[in-house]
Amino acid sequence: MANPGETSAQVLLRHAGMRQVPSSRLTVLSCPHFLPPTLCRALIALIDKDRRPSTIADANGDKYFRTSETCDLSADEPAVQDLEARLLALNGIDPAHGEPVQGQRYDVGQEFKNHTDFFEPQGADFHKFCAVAGNRTWTFMIYLNEVEAGGATRFKVIGKTFQPETGKLVCWDNHREDGSLNPATLHHGMKVRKGVKYVITKWYRERHWH
Ligand SMILES: O=C(O)CCC(=O)C(=O)O
Ligand SMILES: [Fe+2]
């Protein structure tokens, strides 16, 4: 492992049910039932309590680019501590490299258009978001519920779409093996057509978050 803020497919594949998408373009894996339904329900309740409109870095003039709601989850909550312990057991990443866990909520018609999770080094907001902790390394995203229609996550460069399922984890390396930022991680949280979608996002950084 090159950096304590990173993990690897090899480490993640030790977890039962973990599968890697066959692709030479990016490292992305998924695992059904990573979280039990009881924990998913507890996290949904926390998201519903505290949600606010989602934001993006490097505003691009499209006010419909990310229409969901976001919630910063308190590290004092037992459900969040349970989640963090499971992530650490899975990925072995030093928790000091983790951003606080976030929840995202999408109502009918809401989406997060094609984007990458890393910050553009040339972007106006790079310094603001990355001066201390550096860029994002890995993304861990967990669906907390079943969506009646829509709400999939599409990686168009590799033609791979993940469907929301309660407790399913999707995780990927935002860098290539040579350490460069990987534009093939481009992904789209697609519009919810029916129902409500809840996800957890956990991002790790090159350096300590604080
Ligand atoms: O909701 C999704 O399917 C994707 C969420 C996402 O890409 C993000 O929050 O960065
Ligand atoms: Fe994303």
UniProtKB/TrEMBL annotation:
Gene3D superfamilies: q2cbj1_9rhob like domain. Its cofactor is L-ascorbate. Keywords: Dioxygenase, Iron, Metal-binding, Oxidoreductase, Vitamin C. One of its GO terms (molecular function) is procollagen-proline 4-dioxygenase activity. InterPro entries: Oxoglu/Fe-dep_dioxygenase_dom, P4HA-like, Pro_4_hyd_alph, Pro_4_hyd_alph_FE2OG_OXY. Residues 97-206 form the Fe2OG dioxygenase domain. This is Oxygenase. It comes from Aurantiacibacter arachoides.
